[in-house]
């Protein structure tokens, strides 16, 4: 196989990722190189990097890197973008297949194609919502960490934590303020309660089936959308009895449909779009 350092950049609702095939790159993806590739001025620019590997337990294996070089267990937009790449670039001709991630094996389904015959709307079975504090993980003796007050800088927040493969800290608000999440998001992400750091969401429930959210992503910062955040928020809203089990999560970048069954299995459906493809320059790699 030719190692030509081919990449594809796509976005899911403005949350953008670069996809690489581990068999087609001739460089080591170090933390410094990940930071450089994700930087919009010195690299290609993206909210993260997705790398394809072969799997022994699923059709494919995916590793997900944040722009600070850390590795994430799961990513909702990342998974839909990765599945589009696999389908569009002929790695698979079935419309349903499985992907191994650090946060578990997921099932994906291409629901709708665009006028070019490429994948457009994808559903991913994201796995189960986990509320057990140790598994999230949260540094606490409590069994779950729901509706708990924590102090962050000069402010107190009521937080509810959940894992959907990766960890989330959900805060229900009457009004959503971008400046506020940009100020407190990084402090909550790095709070001593969260040994693996955490993704942060501010949520305004709108109805039994809709909520608006703002996102501060672990390792990435303020993003326009996040699939796993949408799943985390929906799980907390259902657990608190604030919404039904079919919920539309609205973000700056667009909407995702989330559905959660009685056993806390989560399904996420939404769009993806390719931005560009190319070859990473030798000059960037040296
Ligand atoms: N954008 C993603 C989440 C990516 C991983 C996250 N930053 C983490 O470290 O857990 C999504 O769409 O889910």
From TrEMBL:
Cell location: Cytoplasm
Main location: cytoplasm
Self-association and partners: Homodimer.
Protein name, per record: Diaminopimelate epimerase
Enzyme Commission number(s) from the entry: 5.1.1.7
One GO CC term, this protein: cytosol
Functional description taken from the UniProt entry: Catalyzes the stereoinversion of LL-2,6-diaminopimelate (L,L-DAP) to meso-diaminopimelate (meso-DAP), a precursor of L-lysine and an essential component of the bacterial peptidoglycan.
Keywords: Amino-acid biosynthesis, Cytoplasm, Isomerase, Lysine biosynthesis
Main EC class the enzyme belongs to: isomerase
GO BP annotations listed: lysine biosynthetic process via diaminopimelate
Reaction catalysis annotation: (2S,6S)-2,6-diaminopimelate = meso-2,6-diaminopimelate
Residues at which substrate binds: 15, 66, 76-77, 166, 199, 217-218, 227-228
Keyword Signal included in the entry's annotation: no
InterPro entries assigned: DAP_epimerase_DapF
């Amino acid at each position: 196989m030719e190692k030509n350092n081919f990449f594809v950049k796509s976005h899911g609702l403005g949350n953008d990722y670069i996809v690489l095939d581990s068999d087609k790159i001739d460089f080591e993806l170090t933390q410094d190189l990940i930071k450089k590739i994700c930087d919009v001025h010195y690299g290609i620019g993206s909210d993260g990097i997705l790398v394809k590997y072969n799997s022994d337990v699923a059709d494919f294996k995916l590793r997900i890197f944040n722009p600070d070089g850390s590795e994430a267990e799961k990513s909702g937009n990342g998974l839909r973008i990765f599945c589009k790449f696999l389908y569009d670039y002929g790695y698979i001709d079935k419309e349903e297949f499985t992907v191994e991630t650090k946060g578990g094996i997921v099932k994906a389904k291409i629901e709708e194609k665009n006028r070019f015959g490429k994948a457009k709307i994808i559903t991913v079975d994201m796995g189960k919502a986990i509320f057990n504090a140790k598994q999230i993980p949260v540094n606490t003796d409590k069994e779950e960490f729901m509706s708990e007050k924590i102090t962050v800088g000069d402010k107190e927040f009521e937080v509810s934590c959940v894992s959907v493969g990766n960890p989330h800290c959900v805060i229900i608000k009457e009004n959503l303020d971008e400046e506020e999440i940009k100020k407190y998001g990084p402090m909550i992400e790095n709070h001593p309660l969260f040994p693996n750091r955490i993704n942060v969401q501010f949520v305004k429930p709108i109805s039994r089936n809709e909520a608006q959210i703002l996102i501060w992503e672990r390792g990435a910062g303020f993003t326009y959308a996040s699939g796993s955040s949408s799943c985390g928020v929906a799980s907390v809203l259902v657990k608190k009895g604030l919404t039904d089990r079919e919920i539309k999560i609205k973000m700056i970048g667009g909407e995702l449909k989330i559905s959660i069954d009685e056993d806390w299995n989560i399904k996420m459906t939404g769009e993806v779009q390719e931005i560009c493809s190319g070859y990473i320059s030798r000059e960037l790699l040296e």
